[in-house]
Design goal:
305 residues; alpha/beta; six-stranded mixed beta sheet; four-stranded antiparallel beta sheet; 12 strands; 32% helix; globular; binds adenosine-5'-diphosphate; binds magnesium ion
Length: 305
Protein backbone atom coordinates (compact mmCIF):
# COMPACT_ATOMS: atom_id res chain seq x y z
CA UNK A 1 0.00 0.00 0.00
CA UNK A 2 3.03 2.27 -0.24
CA UNK A 3 1.77 4.02 -3.33
CA UNK A 4 -1.21 5.40 -1.49
CA UNK A 5 0.53 6.89 1.50
CA UNK A 6 0.26 10.39 0.08
CA UNK A 7 -3.45 10.12 -0.27
CA UNK A 8 -5.79 13.01 -0.43
CA UNK A 9 -7.88 13.49 2.73
CA UNK A 10 -11.42 12.26 2.29
CA UNK A 11 -13.09 15.58 2.85
CA UNK A 12 -10.73 17.61 0.67
CA UNK A 13 -12.44 19.43 -2.14
CA UNK A 14 -10.89 20.84 -5.27
CA UNK A 15 -11.83 24.37 -6.15
CA UNK A 16 -12.21 24.40 -9.88
CA UNK A 17 -13.12 27.10 -12.30
CA UNK A 18 -14.47 26.67 -15.79
CA UNK A 19 -13.80 29.09 -18.63
CA UNK A 20 -16.71 31.31 -17.81
CA UNK A 21 -15.08 31.95 -14.45
CA UNK A 22 -17.74 30.19 -12.38
CA UNK A 23 -16.35 28.41 -9.39
CA UNK A 24 -17.37 24.81 -8.98
CA UNK A 25 -16.49 22.79 -5.96
CA UNK A 26 -15.92 19.17 -6.88
CA UNK A 27 -15.24 17.07 -3.81
CA UNK A 28 -13.29 13.84 -4.15
CA UNK A 29 -15.84 12.25 -1.84
CA UNK A 30 -19.39 11.18 -2.56
CA UNK A 31 -20.76 14.52 -1.41
CA UNK A 32 -21.56 15.43 -4.99
CA UNK A 33 -23.81 12.41 -5.10
CA UNK A 34 -26.52 14.02 -3.05
CA UNK A 35 -26.46 17.07 -5.31
CA UNK A 36 -26.59 15.40 -8.69
CA UNK A 37 -28.30 12.08 -8.15
CA UNK A 38 -31.19 12.99 -5.94
CA UNK A 39 -30.40 9.85 -3.97
CA UNK A 40 -31.30 7.49 -6.82
CA UNK A 41 -29.50 4.25 -7.59
CA UNK A 42 -26.33 4.40 -9.67
CA UNK A 43 -27.52 1.88 -12.26
CA UNK A 44 -30.92 0.29 -12.79
CA UNK A 45 -31.18 -2.34 -15.53
CA UNK A 46 -34.67 -3.75 -16.14
CA UNK A 47 -35.33 -6.77 -18.34
CA UNK A 48 -32.60 -5.76 -20.75
CA UNK A 49 -31.81 -7.83 -23.82
CA UNK A 50 -29.27 -7.31 -26.56
CA UNK A 51 -29.35 -9.05 -29.92
CA UNK A 52 -26.57 -8.41 -32.43
CA UNK A 53 -27.12 -8.89 -36.13
CA UNK A 54 -23.96 -9.85 -37.96
CA UNK A 55 -23.08 -8.63 -41.46
CA UNK A 56 -24.29 -11.92 -42.91
CA UNK A 57 -27.67 -11.45 -41.23
CA UNK A 58 -27.25 -14.02 -38.45
CA UNK A 59 -28.35 -12.97 -34.96
CA UNK A 60 -26.45 -13.38 -31.69
CA UNK A 61 -28.38 -13.02 -28.45
CA UNK A 62 -25.70 -11.52 -26.21
CA UNK A 63 -27.92 -10.65 -23.23
CA UNK A 64 -31.35 -11.80 -22.10
CA UNK A 65 -33.61 -10.68 -19.22
CA UNK A 66 -30.95 -8.76 -17.35
CA UNK A 67 -32.18 -7.17 -14.11
CA UNK A 68 -29.58 -5.43 -12.02
CA UNK A 69 -29.57 -2.54 -9.56
CA UNK A 70 -26.32 -0.99 -8.38
CA UNK A 71 -26.87 1.31 -5.42
CA UNK A 72 -25.02 4.62 -5.09
CA UNK A 73 -21.60 3.85 -3.62
CA UNK A 74 -21.94 0.09 -4.11
CA UNK A 75 -19.20 -2.05 -5.66
CA UNK A 76 -20.54 -4.79 -7.94
CA UNK A 77 -18.27 -7.29 -9.71
CA UNK A 78 -19.50 -8.98 -12.88
CA UNK A 79 -18.01 -12.38 -13.60
CA UNK A 80 -18.78 -15.04 -16.19
CA UNK A 81 -17.23 -17.05 -19.00
CA UNK A 82 -15.82 -15.36 -22.09
CA UNK A 83 -18.52 -14.22 -24.47
CA UNK A 84 -21.32 -14.14 -21.87
CA UNK A 85 -21.98 -10.47 -22.50
CA UNK A 86 -20.12 -8.68 -19.71
CA UNK A 87 -18.55 -6.10 -22.00
CA UNK A 88 -21.84 -5.71 -23.85
CA UNK A 89 -23.60 -4.88 -20.59
CA UNK A 90 -20.88 -2.35 -19.73
CA UNK A 91 -21.20 -0.78 -23.17
CA UNK A 92 -24.96 -0.45 -22.70
CA UNK A 93 -24.52 1.27 -19.33
CA UNK A 94 -21.92 3.60 -20.86
CA UNK A 95 -24.23 4.36 -23.81
CA UNK A 96 -21.67 3.03 -26.27
CA UNK A 97 -24.45 0.78 -27.58
CA UNK A 98 -28.22 0.54 -27.02
CA UNK A 99 -30.34 -2.35 -25.66
CA UNK A 100 -32.63 -4.26 -28.02
CA UNK A 101 -35.23 -4.49 -25.24
CA UNK A 102 -35.75 -3.35 -21.68
CA UNK A 103 -34.74 -0.15 -19.91
CA UNK A 104 -31.59 1.14 -18.35
CA UNK A 105 -31.02 4.23 -16.21
CA UNK A 106 -27.93 5.77 -14.62
CA UNK A 107 -28.67 7.93 -11.57
CA UNK A 108 -32.27 8.09 -12.73
CA UNK A 109 -31.33 9.40 -16.20
CA UNK A 110 -31.22 7.70 -19.56
CA UNK A 111 -27.79 6.26 -20.38
CA UNK A 112 -27.37 8.93 -23.01
CA UNK A 113 -28.16 11.79 -20.65
CA UNK A 114 -25.84 10.32 -18.02
CA UNK A 115 -23.06 10.19 -20.62
CA UNK A 116 -23.69 13.79 -21.62
CA UNK A 117 -23.64 14.80 -17.94
CA UNK A 118 -20.38 12.88 -17.38
CA UNK A 119 -21.91 10.88 -14.56
CA UNK A 120 -19.35 8.09 -14.89
CA UNK A 121 -15.70 7.42 -15.57
CA UNK A 122 -14.48 4.50 -17.66
CA UNK A 123 -11.35 2.34 -17.34
CA UNK A 124 -10.88 -0.65 -19.62
CA UNK A 125 -8.24 -3.37 -20.02
CA UNK A 126 -6.01 -1.29 -22.26
CA UNK A 127 -5.00 1.84 -20.38
CA UNK A 128 -5.63 3.79 -23.60
CA UNK A 129 -3.22 6.61 -22.77
CA UNK A 130 -2.08 9.05 -25.43
CA UNK A 131 1.66 8.36 -25.86
CA UNK A 132 2.54 11.92 -26.88
CA UNK A 133 1.04 13.39 -23.71
CA UNK A 134 2.66 13.34 -20.29
CA UNK A 135 0.99 11.52 -17.40
CA UNK A 136 -0.36 14.83 -16.14
CA UNK A 137 -1.67 15.83 -19.57
CA UNK A 138 -3.39 12.44 -19.97
CA UNK A 139 -5.17 12.86 -16.64
CA UNK A 140 -6.18 16.40 -17.55
CA UNK A 141 -7.56 15.46 -20.96
CA UNK A 142 -11.23 15.07 -19.92
CA UNK A 143 -11.03 18.37 -18.04
CA UNK A 144 -9.53 20.06 -21.09
CA UNK A 145 -12.29 18.69 -23.29
CA UNK A 146 -14.89 20.05 -20.92
CA UNK A 147 -13.45 23.55 -20.71
CA UNK A 148 -11.88 23.62 -17.25
CA UNK A 149 -9.31 26.36 -16.73
CA UNK A 150 -5.61 25.56 -16.62
CA UNK A 151 -5.44 26.34 -12.91
CA UNK A 152 -8.34 24.00 -12.17
CA UNK A 153 -6.82 21.23 -14.29
CA UNK A 154 -3.45 21.54 -12.61
CA UNK A 155 -4.97 21.42 -9.13
CA UNK A 156 -7.11 18.41 -9.95
CA UNK A 157 -4.36 16.40 -11.66
CA UNK A 158 -2.02 17.04 -8.73
CA UNK A 159 -4.65 15.68 -6.35
CA UNK A 160 -5.29 12.62 -8.49
CA UNK A 161 -1.60 11.88 -9.01
CA UNK A 162 -1.21 11.73 -5.24
CA UNK A 163 -4.31 9.60 -4.89
CA UNK A 164 -2.95 6.93 -7.26
CA UNK A 165 0.59 7.22 -5.91
CA UNK A 166 2.21 8.79 -8.96
CA UNK A 167 3.13 12.18 -7.54
CA UNK A 168 6.68 11.91 -8.88
CA UNK A 169 5.69 10.86 -12.39
CA UNK A 170 3.59 13.78 -13.60
CA UNK A 171 6.01 14.73 -16.36
CA UNK A 172 6.81 11.22 -17.56
CA UNK A 173 5.41 9.78 -20.76
CA UNK A 174 3.32 6.59 -20.71
CA UNK A 175 6.04 4.45 -22.32
CA UNK A 176 8.32 5.32 -19.40
CA UNK A 177 5.90 3.63 -16.98
CA UNK A 178 5.20 -0.01 -16.09
CA UNK A 179 1.85 -1.56 -17.05
CA UNK A 180 0.58 -1.17 -13.49
CA UNK A 181 1.53 2.49 -13.41
CA UNK A 182 -0.14 3.10 -16.76
CA UNK A 183 -3.31 1.51 -15.43
CA UNK A 184 -3.13 3.82 -12.39
CA UNK A 185 -2.95 6.80 -14.76
CA UNK A 186 -6.04 5.47 -16.55
CA UNK A 187 -7.85 5.18 -13.23
CA UNK A 188 -6.81 8.71 -12.26
CA UNK A 189 -8.12 9.95 -15.60
CA UNK A 190 -11.42 8.15 -15.05
CA UNK A 191 -11.74 9.95 -11.70
CA UNK A 192 -10.90 13.38 -13.12
CA UNK A 193 -14.44 14.72 -13.06
CA UNK A 194 -15.34 13.17 -9.68
CA UNK A 195 -17.78 10.68 -11.15
CA UNK A 196 -20.25 8.95 -8.87
CA UNK A 197 -19.92 5.82 -10.98
CA UNK A 198 -16.90 3.98 -12.38
CA UNK A 199 -17.26 1.43 -15.16
CA UNK A 200 -14.26 -0.87 -15.24
CA UNK A 201 -13.92 -3.69 -17.77
CA UNK A 202 -11.03 -6.00 -16.81
CA UNK A 203 -8.81 -3.04 -15.93
CA UNK A 204 -6.17 -5.30 -14.37
CA UNK A 205 -6.44 -8.12 -16.90
CA UNK A 206 -3.07 -7.42 -18.51
CA UNK A 207 -1.11 -7.14 -15.26
CA UNK A 208 1.05 -9.75 -13.52
CA UNK A 209 -0.39 -11.31 -10.36
CA UNK A 210 1.69 -9.31 -7.87
CA UNK A 211 0.88 -5.99 -9.50
CA UNK A 212 -2.71 -7.02 -9.82
CA UNK A 213 -3.19 -7.71 -6.10
CA UNK A 214 -1.50 -4.43 -5.32
CA UNK A 215 -3.82 -2.58 -7.70
CA UNK A 216 -6.85 -4.29 -6.18
CA UNK A 217 -5.91 -3.04 -2.73
CA UNK A 218 -5.36 0.45 -4.16
CA UNK A 219 -8.67 0.44 -5.96
CA UNK A 220 -10.44 -0.67 -2.77
CA UNK A 221 -8.81 2.25 -1.02
CA UNK A 222 -9.73 4.73 -3.75
CA UNK A 223 -13.34 3.55 -3.65
CA UNK A 224 -13.47 3.92 0.11
CA UNK A 225 -12.16 7.44 -0.35
CA UNK A 226 -14.33 8.61 -3.25
CA UNK A 227 -17.53 6.66 -2.38
CA UNK A 228 -18.12 6.11 -6.10
CA UNK A 229 -20.27 3.17 -7.19
CA UNK A 230 -18.33 0.70 -9.34
CA UNK A 231 -19.31 -1.91 -11.90
CA UNK A 232 -16.22 -4.05 -12.32
CA UNK A 233 -15.81 -6.84 -14.90
CA UNK A 234 -13.21 -9.49 -14.17
CA UNK A 235 -12.28 -13.07 -15.03
CA UNK A 236 -10.73 -13.65 -11.64
CA UNK A 237 -12.92 -15.05 -8.85
CA UNK A 238 -10.70 -13.83 -5.96
CA UNK A 239 -10.45 -10.39 -7.56
CA UNK A 240 -14.24 -10.22 -7.94
CA UNK A 241 -14.73 -11.18 -4.28
CA UNK A 242 -11.96 -9.07 -2.78
CA UNK A 243 -13.33 -5.87 -4.26
CA UNK A 244 -17.08 -6.26 -4.25
CA UNK A 245 -20.10 -5.82 -2.05
CA UNK A 246 -21.88 -8.20 -4.43
CA UNK A 247 -20.64 -10.53 -7.16
CA UNK A 248 -22.98 -11.01 -10.11
CA UNK A 249 -22.37 -14.34 -11.82
CA UNK A 250 -23.39 -14.52 -15.47
CA UNK A 251 -24.15 -17.62 -17.50
CA UNK A 252 -22.85 -18.44 -21.02
CA UNK A 253 -24.72 -17.20 -24.05
CA UNK A 254 -27.28 -15.94 -24.01
CA UNK A 255 -25.87 -13.99 -21.10
CA UNK A 256 -28.16 -14.03 -18.11
CA UNK A 257 -27.67 -13.38 -14.43
CA UNK A 258 -27.09 -16.79 -12.92
CA UNK A 259 -26.64 -15.79 -9.28
CA UNK A 260 -25.78 -12.86 -7.06
CA UNK A 261 -23.40 -13.51 -4.17
CA UNK A 262 -23.33 -11.12 -1.20
CA UNK A 263 -19.77 -10.73 -0.01
CA UNK A 264 -19.70 -10.34 3.75
CA UNK A 265 -16.25 -9.02 4.45
CA UNK A 266 -17.40 -6.39 6.91
CA UNK A 267 -17.73 -2.66 6.57
CA UNK A 268 -14.05 -1.83 7.06
CA UNK A 269 -11.63 -1.10 4.26
CA UNK A 270 -10.47 -4.01 2.13
CA UNK A 271 -6.87 -4.77 2.99
CA UNK A 272 -4.65 -7.69 2.00
CA UNK A 273 -5.32 -9.42 5.35
CA UNK A 274 -8.85 -10.16 4.17
CA UNK A 275 -7.44 -12.54 1.54
CA UNK A 276 -6.81 -14.98 4.42
CA UNK A 277 -10.26 -14.47 5.94
CA UNK A 278 -12.61 -17.47 6.19
CA UNK A 279 -15.44 -15.37 4.78
CA UNK A 280 -13.28 -14.51 1.77
CA UNK A 281 -12.72 -18.22 1.03
CA UNK A 282 -16.41 -18.93 1.60
CA UNK A 283 -17.42 -16.29 -0.94
CA UNK A 284 -14.81 -17.46 -3.45
CA UNK A 285 -16.22 -21.02 -3.15
CA UNK A 286 -19.77 -19.79 -3.52
CA UNK A 287 -18.97 -17.84 -6.69
CA UNK A 288 -17.02 -20.80 -8.10
CA UNK A 289 -19.92 -23.19 -7.45
CA UNK A 290 -22.34 -20.91 -9.27
CA UNK A 291 -19.95 -20.58 -12.21
CA UNK A 292 -19.40 -24.31 -12.50
CA UNK A 293 -23.08 -24.95 -12.15
CA UNK A 294 -23.47 -23.25 -15.52
CA UNK A 295 -21.29 -25.66 -17.49
CA UNK A 296 -21.13 -29.45 -17.19
CA UNK A 297 -17.55 -29.45 -18.48
CA UNK A 298 -16.27 -26.52 -16.46
CA UNK A 299 -16.08 -22.91 -17.40
CA UNK A 300 -13.65 -21.63 -19.94
CA UNK A 301 -12.25 -18.17 -19.60
CA UNK A 302 -12.58 -17.84 -15.84
CA UNK A 303 -9.55 -17.89 -13.59
CA UNK A 304 -9.69 -19.59 -10.22
CA UNK A 305 -6.64 -17.82 -8.91
N1 LIG B 1 -20.74 -5.79 -32.28
C1 LIG B 1 -21.03 -7.10 -32.22
N2 LIG B 1 -21.57 -7.77 -33.25
C2 LIG B 1 -21.88 -9.07 -33.17
N3 LIG B 1 -21.69 -9.82 -32.06
C3 LIG B 1 -21.16 -9.22 -30.98
C4 LIG B 1 -20.79 -7.83 -31.00
N4 LIG B 1 -20.30 -7.52 -29.77
C5 LIG B 1 -20.34 -8.65 -29.05
N5 LIG B 1 -20.86 -9.66 -29.76
C6 LIG B 1 -21.11 -11.03 -29.31
O1 LIG B 1 -21.85 -10.96 -28.10
C7 LIG B 1 -21.41 -11.93 -27.18
C8 LIG B 1 -20.98 -11.24 -25.89
O2 LIG B 1 -19.78 -10.53 -26.12
P1 LIG B 1 -19.03 -9.72 -24.97
O3 LIG B 1 -20.00 -8.81 -24.33
O4 LIG B 1 -17.81 -9.11 -25.57
O5 LIG B 1 -18.62 -10.87 -23.95
P2 LIG B 1 -17.64 -10.87 -22.68
O6 LIG B 1 -17.21 -9.46 -22.43
O7 LIG B 1 -18.44 -11.46 -21.57
O8 LIG B 1 -16.49 -11.76 -23.03
C9 LIG B 1 -20.29 -12.69 -27.87
O9 LIG B 1 -20.82 -13.84 -28.44
C10 LIG B 1 -19.81 -11.74 -28.92
O10 LIG B 1 -19.27 -12.44 -30.01
MG1 LIG C 1 -15.33 -8.56 -22.38
Amino acid sequence: MTAIENRVPAAQASDTRNQTGETMTQPLTGERESQSTGGSDAVVVRDVGKIFTTKKGATVTALENIDLTVAAGEFVSLIGPSGCGKSTLMRLIADLDTPTSGTLTVFGKTAKQARLDQEYGIAFQQAGLLPWRTVRANIELPLELHGFSKAARTARSRELLLLVGLGDFADNYPDQLSGGMQQRVAIARSLAESPNLLLMDEPFGALDEMTREHMQAELAHICAETQAAVVFVTHSIPEAVFLADRVVVMSPRPGRIQAVVDVKLGAGERTDDLREDDQFFASVSEVREHLHGTHATGVRGVENR
